[in-house]
Design goal:
With 149 residues, this protein is of the alpha+beta class. It has a single domain, classed as CBS-domain. The protein contains six helices and five strands.
Length: 149
């Protein structure tokens, strides 16, 4: 059973973070620069929230707030759902589906941020796994191609 640790090995452990005092405009620019859908909000190395595209749409755009003056702290999601690198891929998929979230920050044994998994990462992992299974099944059914002598 695959664990999120394996996804991090291929994807990397980098996580884009921002401070609660930064503006929503700065957060959106950072998200655009890195082509990501959310940033983790940290104060002195501690995760205090998460700001996603959905948060910006609902709490800034739809509320007609000025993103250049609105602090991230006022619109971020503060009840962050976490997982660990030892969480299985299936557990992460179920958690994200049940909680209706698209990003899952990972904390290590010391409670430190050590990675981020998105629903896109999980979908890509599943697609690769299924492709490998299909390949092996085809080889089993049709036999391995003869090797040249």
């Amino acid at each position: 059973m695959a664990r999120l640790r394996e996804l991090l090995q291929s994807k990397g452990t980098g996580v884009v973070t921002i401070t609660p005092q930064a503006t929503v405009l700065e957060a959106a620019q950072l998200m655009n620069q890195h082509r990501i859908g959310c940033v983790v909000v940290c104060a002195e190395r501690e995760v205090v929230g998460i700001l996603s595209e959905r948060d910006i749409l609902r709490r800034v755009v739809a509320a007609c707030r000025d993103p250049s003056t609105t602090p991230v702290a006022e619109v971020m999601t503060t009840q962050v759902i976490f997982a660990s690198p030892d969480t299985t891929v299936e557990q992460a998929q179920r958690l994200m589906m049940e909680k209706r979230i698209r990003h899952l920050p990972l904390l290590d044994e010391q409670g430190q941020l050590c990675g981020m998994i998105s629903i896109g990462d999980l979908n890509a992992w599943e697609a690769r796994t299924k492709e490998a299974t299909i390949h092996w099944l085809q080889e089993y059914i049709y036999g391995r191609p003869a090797s040249p002598l």
